[in-house]
Specification:
By secondary structure, the chain is of the alpha/beta class. The protein has two domains: about 60 residues, Urease, subunit C, domain 1; about 300 residues, TIM Barrel, CATH 3.20.20. The protein has ten helices and 25 strands. Strand 23 and strand 24 form a beta hairpin. The longest helix is centred in the N-terminal third of the chain and has 14 residues. It is globular, with a radius of gyration of 20 Å. The two termini are about 20 Å apart.
Length: about 375
């Protein structure tokens, strides 16, 4: 299969003179246009980008990952394919621990059947009650050796876990999960600078929904001390999630994150909940709490608290370009290469020989035209 007549977005630049050849689900060649015959797909001058990787997504179309069944998982994946997502980490919520384990078991069973599922992101329950956000504080708990052990039984499924570094048992948990190859992300946290640094030293390498549900600089004694936010923005080893749909963060904060982390230190995430894809005013459930879609975002019903987002990754890409003045190749890397690296998915996120043929065709206006997983079309507009 030869993708031709397209503007190919590589990690370093946009190329107008390349064909991309996919064979057996992999990218086999990048070569001069129309240099050899074959089954061609004429992309009519549209962009060809690597498929997007969303490492933080709870749901869509009225379904949540905690439902732990194939119908819910397919509905979520199908909706996000319309936004260019070819790989995602189904994200659990703070809930009864048995329900988290059930979701992980089902994700493990169904990821071969639903190829967009790359694994799981466990968000909570080892988080701060003071920074719970839309998470249910009833089920927040400390990271005991028993619970850590239960999660490590699913180490082949869990790619990412969010932990508040200052909570009881957190540093030991961070060290164990990191040693098991699971990316630890700081979040839902009230940590001081020294607590964040201790987490880094024990293996924390990511930040969950930067600027949201986390500590920032506070006065202690005569001076101001960094919180988790400033520590992560200043630390090159940490990659920052960013929900860049302009409800969670303003354009100035989007630009601040880009100035601090550059094109390689941000992973765009939707944090989409079951409200994504639903009509304005529709209600839905998140971890037992009633939520509502309002003004293009998701909120706890009767409150002003955001409950994830209603966005797709392509919406975030456009927002970063429009509001933070990020060059297109950098915005695409934030949606593909960066999250693939932070999730330990080396065959994803880049148009390069030997990588998976996970691709998204974008119009000049950055609308998703087609989405491919392993060279198979899974969405067409």
């Amino acid at each position: 299969m030869i993708f031709t007549n397209c503007r190919v977005i590589l990690a370093d630049a946009i190329h107008d003179d390349l064909d991309v050849v996919a064979r057996d689900g992999k990218i086999a060649e990048l070569r001069a246009m129309a240099s050899q015959p074959g089954e061609t797909i004429d992309l009519r001058g549209n962009f060809l980008a690597p498929g997007f990787v969303d490492v933080h997504v709870h749901g869509a179309n009225g379904h949540d990952a905690m439902e732990a069944n194939a119908d819910a998982f397919r509905a979520i994946c199908d909706y996000h394919a319309s936004g260019g997502t070819t790989s995602l980490l189904l994200t659990t919520a703070t809930a009864p621990f048995s329900e988290i384990l059930l979701a992980l078991t089902q994700i493990g069973k169904l990821r071969e059947e639903i190829p967009q599922i790359a694994g799981a992101h466990v968000e909570g329950p080892f988080i701060s009650r003071d920074q719970a956000g839309a998470q249910n504080p009833e089920f927040i708990c400390e990271a005991s050796a028993e619970l850590i052990g239960c999660l490590l039984e699913h180490r082949d499924v869990i790619k990412r876990i969010t932990i508040a570094p200052e909570t009881k048992g957190a540093l030991a948990a961070i060290k164990e999960f990191s040693a098991a190859g699971i990316v630890v992300s700081g979040g839902h946290s009230n940590a001081w600078e020294e607590e964040a640094r201790a987490a880094l030293e024990n293996g924390m390498r990511s930040l969950t929904h930067t600027f949201n549900c986390m500590s920032s600089a506070r006065r202690r004694g005569t001076k101001r001390v960094a919180g988790l936010l400033e520590f992560a923005l200043s630390e090159p080893k940490i990659c920052c999630e960013l929900i860049a749909e302009e409800h969670h963060v303003s354009p100035a904060l989007m630009k601040l994150a880009y100035c601090a982390k550059g094109g390689g230190g941000i992973s765009l995430v939707t944090d989409a909940t079951a409200g994504a894809g639903l009509a304005e005013g529709t209600t839905f459930q998140l971890a037992g709490k009633e939520c509502i879609v309002k003004n293009g975002a998701c909120f706890l019903a009767g409150a002003g608290t955001l409950a994830g987002s209603a966005s797709r990754v392509i919406d975030l890409v456009r927002a970063m370009i429009r509001s933070a003045e990020v060059p297109l190749p950098h915005a695409i890397a934030m949606a593909s290469l960066n999250p693939a690296r932070t999730a330990g998915l080396p065959e994803k996120g880049e148009i390069a020989i030997g990588k998976d043929a996970d691709l998204v065709v974008l119009s000049p206006e950055l609308e998703v035209v087609r989405t491919y997983v392993a060279g198979v079309e899974i969405f067409v507009r």
